[in-house]
């Protein structure tokens, strides 16, 4: 390294911040506000701390034991207890929780009523029995679950760990439950961390500890944590007795990725630390032999335990509807009880004197007539209690478990590549999958593969393409195959004299083949990942590129300069990306181009304008710049020879070691592989240094001074490095072009006019290339740099250290220091990376649209990139009229929305809206066929800034009204908060069912906001999956999940709910009709046990089988005809109409089932149970046959369950009537069923009555099947046809449903937008619009 005037304290390591602070204090520089706190005051020997706002940790050693003992009493121990109950509290607490359910309270109220002698209907024990059984079963289930938690807690609490013992001055093996805040913990490789621990020592020479955080966030790639500054250079084992510092940090919270605090040294100075030094409970130590730390949070105060929330509960739409209908049933029950009470009073009033059954009280007084009517009202509630279908809730839970079982075992939803099937994380909203109206999707990783391929780059205004990059993915061994050829940019070609010569520079054997993988290992560092999914295969072509990167300059100077800039860019990519895995204070990398000779002249941009670009051949061009090239005369054939000689010779015989890189995102892996493909290879990476091998074989080691990590606010990351040859301190920044371009130095500040002109031209050409990349769907990144002086960096580093040591406003201070460094940048270039569409995405989107589902894409990508992907996946069509709104002015935005609405309404003409939105008339979802044939579809593209304007300007309603006319909506540059706001806006204002799908942590808020959240287990960890209700591995699985399983789950459950209402109302009405013939006395003609068995055994299983196995339409037909999904969106199976029809039908059937036996046995001398048994048998047969008519699928299971339920009734009745001699005195059901079976009249009425009861329903279903226009009915008919005829019918159906082509005149119609001041608004008509028109 060259000599320079740099103070000895300014070391090039991460730990240099401590020395920088000492230098700052020694030289008397002013202190920051955080440094002027009492903690730094020398007047106080003992610091007083605010324990309400911060946590203070003293070490448990001999020196600080007294302080430790005093302060630790305030903090939680490490013993955890996740159980809800203890042995003494189990019974009362469990009963208390169960009676929080209103259904149990309702039953308890009935039991209490029945215990009152004046209102007793059933035997008291009989009334208690159902409630006692339900409470007991739930209590057993809760007890078993809690006992499992207790055993797991005991296992965890008794796990072993090495804890430093002060008295013995050594580490002693103890249990986890013995760990206290302030203890020193020694952990070995593959051990689980017992508490939240601040890392003080690592056996790794670089002070790094590798963690696997799968238990917390599901991510299996290793994370790196580093020791606190000042502790990384320990030569020997850590000595706890020598640690005399005090730790001050934030109070316990549930932010897994946020932690701040500082360490107070004995001299009252501070060293700051953050989440990069915190080992979280539940993580596993990997690839690190020994790690030592001090406990910060223990037990239930650890971040993992604070995030340990139970499963989220969502109420489905059917459940919400069902609760409303239960209130109607309560009203019906109240009305029937009122009739009974009034009827009883009227009937008693017909007696001139008190009847013999009216018993007076002890004083001989009779109850008043009104009071007797009130008692009868309560008695009727007990009698007719089954009208409220309480058992329906239990049945629904069982049915959903069955549906989820079949859902998880569907092989079509299994992905072989990832070995993952669908995960159902929410058990109570499966039916909502069949009612979705809006889908909100992320783009990257959801619609695309999130497997990045480096395609193009622009360097200092010159564009370089890599057309044959896809060839490396064509081998059968590669899973992420890429068969598409890059066909754009045909204008970038060689001159004629080059096109006739081989474009290859160097041989194919120069670069070692390496498979691109996301998870990786770098053997040179000695940290080979033990469970890496990546591996190297020598049979594969070179990674990242098979094309060369060559320029055809007019002079040797331009050629050398171009290659130098290429080399600079690739080193920048390598240094920036490999440093991002460290935290905000970890070092990073440097400029190679600057390092290879300060005497190299700067290229002339005027000469570069004439450079043509080639992308042919199959070599990996190192592109190294030598200062001797300025003197080389390159002409004609001599150009080939000299270029080949200079580029290839240094690489001959180079033995490149087998490397596999680990990166935090696929973008970073693609950039590093790009540099490797051009022989700029990363061979070592430590927190303090990065070693890169050049094409010549030379290795350069860069000292990393600081890394400013990426965050979603800054949208960039930076690395500060010292150049190994020039000694300059250089800041490299990589980030979104929308941000980097605003941070560039003003060209007007250039030293002369020529330089200003060159800078402006470079920026303009780079922006042009960025737009081209975006229009081709590439992900773009800009790279810039800045050289700073030693003094400037020293001052900045001191400010940075102060910000890191601050406990208050730490994030704001760190942001301020980053912004202070990241400005006045010099643009170097930009990259374009391709992220291909997932397989089956266009077909899935087309099917969802046919199903009537509105699809919105919410992405943070550039507008041009997102629009291109939208066209590729058929979200937008070439014939669509696309409106693009980009403005930050509220008035402008409002005028644009008004004009767009007027124009769209002219397109569609007058329509009759089918719903209203707060007074706004919204168009019908399916316009008339005539309008569809005459008008193109409408699409809307809007950016994040415009969304902010809409939300802040109260323009949401106009925006929503416009979106109702749009076929698709595309929101670009949207933040995670904006995504969730959009979902909530649509869900709440339009009252529609919404689904959000995403794969990254930035989609979590959107997933939580929707009615159903779906996570994709992709390349960005599992945070979206862990926050979702369902998890799938591919976007294409959404098609079958919604169109098939969603339809089935909704159809089954909706019809089962309606059936339950029918069944209970029908059966209860039999008891109600009998009251008219028993003086409204509350007596029954059916035995109490028979009534209990009726719902418990005889009619419980058929609805469950129906709800789990019934298929109204086959999966093949549902997939072939997506429009069948609309039946669920319109709630055709269960709505107010179907509910009241089933209630009326139940009343009719109960009348038939009661009065036919009544008229048959009228004026006979049979007893009450002989009259009630035929009614009970008839009602059972009618209810089961009604169920059979509802079943659309018949299997052996269906038949056995129905027949078995009916036979079980007779078996139980015969046995019960045979043994029940004196069970229900004075009237007993002894031998009643046996007598009935010997009576021909019984068989006759059991045949005639069900037929009469079900005849109207059968007649209605027959008419509906013959003349009904429902799509479901038509599809059911098609399903019954033979395979060949069914396919023809489906094809004919699709041809009829396909909209007519748009007339030519309609396609060419362009509606100009009136001039609106300062607006960025485009309405692109179909023929004048294409993806490349977006600018």
Task: Please explain how this structure is put together.
- The protein has 1335 residues and is of the alpha+beta class.
- Helix content is 42%, strand content 15%.
- It contains 42 helices and 36 strands.
- It has a ten-stranded mixed β-sheet with strand order 14-35-34-33-15-27-32-31-28-36, sandwiched between helices. It has a nine-stranded antiparallel β-sheet with strand order 17-16-26-25-24-23-22-21-20, with helices on both faces.
- α3 (90-98) crosses α5 and α23 runs parallel beside α26 (956-963).
- The two termini are 47 Å apart.
Helix content bin = 40-55%
* Unreliable residue stretches: 1-46, 468-562, 578-656, 910-933, 1302-1335
Distance between the termini: 47 Å
Major sheet description: 10 strands, mixed
Question: Structural class of the helix and strand makeup?
Answer: alpha+beta
The count of helical stretches stands at 42
The residue-averaged pLDDT reads 76
- Numbering strands along the chain, what is their spatial order in the largest sheet? 14-35-34-33-15-27-32-31-28-36
**Shape estimate:** globular
How many E-type strands? Answer: 36
Amount of beta strand: 5-15%
Radius of gyration: 39 Å
Short description:
This protein is of the alpha+beta class.
Q: Which helices and strands, and how do they pair?
A:
Elements: H1 16-26, E1 54-57, H2 65-72, H3 90-98, H4 102-114, H5 124-157, E2 160-165, E3 170-175, E4 184-188, E5 196-202, E6 208-212, H6 214-217, E7 223-226, E8 246-250, E9 260-264, E10 270-274, E11 278-279, E12 284-286, E13 290-297, H7 303-306, H8 317-349, H9 369-383, H10 391-408, E14 423-424, E15 438-441, E16 448-459, E17 462-465, H11 496-499, E18 550-552, H12 556-579, H13 592-595, H14 605-608, E19 612-614, H15 637-648, H16 666-677, E20 681-685, E21 689-693, E22 699-711, E23 716-722, E24 729-735, H17 737-740, H18 753-775, E25 778-788, H19 790-805, H20 810-821, E26 826-837, H21 841-850, E27 854-858, H22 863-872, E28 881-886, H23 890-908, E29 915-917, E30 920-922, H24 929-934, E31 938-943, H25 944-952, H26 956-963, E32 968-972, H27 976-990, E33 994-998, H28 1004-1009, E34 1012-1016, H29 1023-1026, E35 1030-1032, H30 1037-1075, H31 1088-1098, H32 1101-1109, H33 1115-1120, H34 1126-1129, H35 1136-1160, H36 1168-1190, H37 1196-1219, H38 1232-1237, H39 1240-1267, H40 1271-1279, H41 1283-1297, H42 1304-1308, E36 1320-1324
Parallel strand pairs: 15-27, 15-33, 27-32, 28-31, 31-32, 33-34, 34-35
Antiparallel strand pairs: 1-8, 2-3, 2-4, 4-13, 5-11, 5-13, 6-7, 6-12, 8-9, 9-10, 14-35, 16-17, 16-26, 18-19, 20-21, 21-22, 22-23, 23-24, 24-25, 25-26, 28-36, 29-30
């Amino acid at each position: 390294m060259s000599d320079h005037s740099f103070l000895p304290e300014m070391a090039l390591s991460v730990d240099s911040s401590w020395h920088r602070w000492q230098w700052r204090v020694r030289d008397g520089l002013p202190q920051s506000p955080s440094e002027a706190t009492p903690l730094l005051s020398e007047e106080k020997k003992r610091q007083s701390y605010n324990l309400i706002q911060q946590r203070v940790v003293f070490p448990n050693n001999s020196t600080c034991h007294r302080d430790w003992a005093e302060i630790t009493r305030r903090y939680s121990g490490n013993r955890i207890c996740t159980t809800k109950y203890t042995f003494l509290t189990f019974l009362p607490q469990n009963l208390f929780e169960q009676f929080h359910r209103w259904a149990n309270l309702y039953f308890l109220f009935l039991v209490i009523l029945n215990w009152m002698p004046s209102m007793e209907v059933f035997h008291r024990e009989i009334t208690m029995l159902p409630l006692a059984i339900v409470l007991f079963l739930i209590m057993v289930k809760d007890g078993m679950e809690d006992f499992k938690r207790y055993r797991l807690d005991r296992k965890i609490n008794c796990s072993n760990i090495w804890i430093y013992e002060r008295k013995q001055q050594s580490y002693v093996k103890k249990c986890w439950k013995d760990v206290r805040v302030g203890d020193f913990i020694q952990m070995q490789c593959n051990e689980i961390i017992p508490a939240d621990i601040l890392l003080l020592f690592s056996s790794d020479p670089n002070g790094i500890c590798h963690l696997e955080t799968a238990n917390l966030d599901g991510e299996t790639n290793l994370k790196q944590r580093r020791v606190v500054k000042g502790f990384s250079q320990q030569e020997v084992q850590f000595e706890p007795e020598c640690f005399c510092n005090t730790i001050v940090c934030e109070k316990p919270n549930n932010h897994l990725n946020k932690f701040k605090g500082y360490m107070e040294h004995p001299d009252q100075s501070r060293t700051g630390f953050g989440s990069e030094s915190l080992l979280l409970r539940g993580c596993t130590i990997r690839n690190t032999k020994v790690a030592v730390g001090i406990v910060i949070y223990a037990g239930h105060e650890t971040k993992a335990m604070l995030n340990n929330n139970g499963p989220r509960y969502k109420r489905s739409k059917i459940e919400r509807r069902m609760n409303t209908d239960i209130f109607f049933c309560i009203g019906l029950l109240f009305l029937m009880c009122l009739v009974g009470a009034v009827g009883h009073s009227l009937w008693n009033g017909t007696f001139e004197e008190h009847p013999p059954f009216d018993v007076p009280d002890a004083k001989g007084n009779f109850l008043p007539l009104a009071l007797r009517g009130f008692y009868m009202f309560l008695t009727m509630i007990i009698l007719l209690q089954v009208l409220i279908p309480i058992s329906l809730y239990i049945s629904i839970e069982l049915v959903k478990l069955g549906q989820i079982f079949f859902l998880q075992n569907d092989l079509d939803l299994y992905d072989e590549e990832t070995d993952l099937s669908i995960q159902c994380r929410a058990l109570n909203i499966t039916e909502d999958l069949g009612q979705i109206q809006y889908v909100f999707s992320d783009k990257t990783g959801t619609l695309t593969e999130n497997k990045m391929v480096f395609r193009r780059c622009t360097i200092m205004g010159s564009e370089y393409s890599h057309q044959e990059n896809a060839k490396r993915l064509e081998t059968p061994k590669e899973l992420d195959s890429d068969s598409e050829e890059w066909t754009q940019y045909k204008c970038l070609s060689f001159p004629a004299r080059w096109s006739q010569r081989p474009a290859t520079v160097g041989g194919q054997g120069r670069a070692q083949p390496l498979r691109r993988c996301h998870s990786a290992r770098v053997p040179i560092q000695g940290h080979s990942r033990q469970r890496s999914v990546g591996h190297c295969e020598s049979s594969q072509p070179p990674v990242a590129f098979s094309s060369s990167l060559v320029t055809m300059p007019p002079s040797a100077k331009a050629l050398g300069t171009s290659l130098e800039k290429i080399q600079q860019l690739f080193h920048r990519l390598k240094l920036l990306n490999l440093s991002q895995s460290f935290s905000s204070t970890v070092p990073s990398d440097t400029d190679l181009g600057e390092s290879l000779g300060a005497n190299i002249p700067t290229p002339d941009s005027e000469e570069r304008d004439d450079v043509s670009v080639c992308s042919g051949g199959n070599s990996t061009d190192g592109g190294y710049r030598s200062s001797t090239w300025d003197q080389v005369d390159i002409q004609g054939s001599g150009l080939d020879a000299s270029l080949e000689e200079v580029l290839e010779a240094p690489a001959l015989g180079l033995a490149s070691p087998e490397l596999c890189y680990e990166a935090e995102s696929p973008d970073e892996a693609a950039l590093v592989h790009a540099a490797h493909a051009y022989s700029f290879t990363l061979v070592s990476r430590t927190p303090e240094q990065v070693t890169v091998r050049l094409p010549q074989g030379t290795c350069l080691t860069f000292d990393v001074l600081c890394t400013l990590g990426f965050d979603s606010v800054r949208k960039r990351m930076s690395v500060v490095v010292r150049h190994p040859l020039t000694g300059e301190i250089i800041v490299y920044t990589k980030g979104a072009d929308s941000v980097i371009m605003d941070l560039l130095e003003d060209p007007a500040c250039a030293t002369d006019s020529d330089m200003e002109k060159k800078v402006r031209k470079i920026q303009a050409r780079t922006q042009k290339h960025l737009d081209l990349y975006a229009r081709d769907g590439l992900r773009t990144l800009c790279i810039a740099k800045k050289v700073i002086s030693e003094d400037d960096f020293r001052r900045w580093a001191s400010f940075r250290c102060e910000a890191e040591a601050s406990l208050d406003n730490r994030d704001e201070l760190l942001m301020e220091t980053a912004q202070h460094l990241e400005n006045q940048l010099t643009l170097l270039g930009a990259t374009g990376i391709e992220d291909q569409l997932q397989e089956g995405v266009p077909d899935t989107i087309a099917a969802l649209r046919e199903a009537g589902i509105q699809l919105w894409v919410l992405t943070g990508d550039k507008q041009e990139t997102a629009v291109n992907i939208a066209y590729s996946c058929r979200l937008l069509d070439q014939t669509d009229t696309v409106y693009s709104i980009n403005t930050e002015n509220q008035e402008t935005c409002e005028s644009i929305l008004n004009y767009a609405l007027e124009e769209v309404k002219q397109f569609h003409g007058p329509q009759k809206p089918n719903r209203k939105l707060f007074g706004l008339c919204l168009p019908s979802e399916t316009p008339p066929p005539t309008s569809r044939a005459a008008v193109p579809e409408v699409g809307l593209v809007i950016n994040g800034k415009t969304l902010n304007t809409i939300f802040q300007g109260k323009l949401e309603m106009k925006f929503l009204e416009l979106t109702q006319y749009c076929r698709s909506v595309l929101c670009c540059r949207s933040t995670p908060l904006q995504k969730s706001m959009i979902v909530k806006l649509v869900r709440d204002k339009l009252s529609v069912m919404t689904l959000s799908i995403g794969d990254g942590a930035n989609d979590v808020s959107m997933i939580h906001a929707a009615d159903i959240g779906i996570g994709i287990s992709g390349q960005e960890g599992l945070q979206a999956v862990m926050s979702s209700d369902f998890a799938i591995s591919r976007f294409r699985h959404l098609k079958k999940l919604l169109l098939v399983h969603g339809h089935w789950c909704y159809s089954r459950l909706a019809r089962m709910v309606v059936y339950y209402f029918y069944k209970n109302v029908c059966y209860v009405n039999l008891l109600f009709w009998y009251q008219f013939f028993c003086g409204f006395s509350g007596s029954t003609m059916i035995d109490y046990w028979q009534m209990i068995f009726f719902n418990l055994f005889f009619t419980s299983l058929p609805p469950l089988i129906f709800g789990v196995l019934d298929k109204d339409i086959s999966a093949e037909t549902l997939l072939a005809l997506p429009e069948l999904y609309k039946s669920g969106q319109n709630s055709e199976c269960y709505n107010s109409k179907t509910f009241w029809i089933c209630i009326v039908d139940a009343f009719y059937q109960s009348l038939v089932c009661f009065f036919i036996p009544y008229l048959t046995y009228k004026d006979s001398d049979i007893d009450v149970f002989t009259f009630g048994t035929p009614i009970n048998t008839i009602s059972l047969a009618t209810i089961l046959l009604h169920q059979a008519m509802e079943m659309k699928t018949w299997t052996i299971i269906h038949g056995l369950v129905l027949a078995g339920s009916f036979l079980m009734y007779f078996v139980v009745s015969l046995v019960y009537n045979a043994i029940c001699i004196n069970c229900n005195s004075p009237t007993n059901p002894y031998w009643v069923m046996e007598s009935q079976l010997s009576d021909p009249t019984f068989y006759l009425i059991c045949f005639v009555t069900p037929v009469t009861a079900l005849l109207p329903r059968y007649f209605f279903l027959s008419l509906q099947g013959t003349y009904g226009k429902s799509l479901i009915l038509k599809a059911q008919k098609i399903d019954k046809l033979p395979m060949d005829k069914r396919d023809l019918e489906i094809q004919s159906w699709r041809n009829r449903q396909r909209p007519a082509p748009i007339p030519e005149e309609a396609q060419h119609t362009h509606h100009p937008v009136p001039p609106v001041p300062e607006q960025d608004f485009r309405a692109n008509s179909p023929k004048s619009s294409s993806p490349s028109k977006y600018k």
